[in-house]
Design a protein that fits this description.
By secondary structure, this protein is mainly beta. It has one helix at about 20-25, and strands at about 1-5, 10, 15-20, 30-35, 50, 65.
Length: about 70
């Protein structure tokens, strides 16, 4: 998973956490689709955080971007 803040690449993380709900819905073959990411710098009001799947055609439905309020 690639993480961007305000369109600028911040870092990446791997999907290593088991998500039985995604496996049950056939979104993930093995269920290892959960991830965590700790931002290296504090987020500010108005920052837009975007996550993108790396090396995969999958795109997140609806909520791939979150604005910090």
């Amino acid at each position: 998973i690639n993480v961007f803040v305000n369109g600028i690449f911040q870092g990446f993380t791997f999907c290593r956490f088991y998500r039985p709900d995604l496996k049950e819905k056939n979104i993930s073959v093995d269920g290892l689709s959960g991830f965590r990411y700790s931002h290296p710098h504090p987020l500010k009001l108005g920052d837009v955080v975007e996550v993108k799947v790396h090396a995969n055609r999958y795109t997140f439905p609806k909520r791939d971007k979150v604005t910090i309020e």
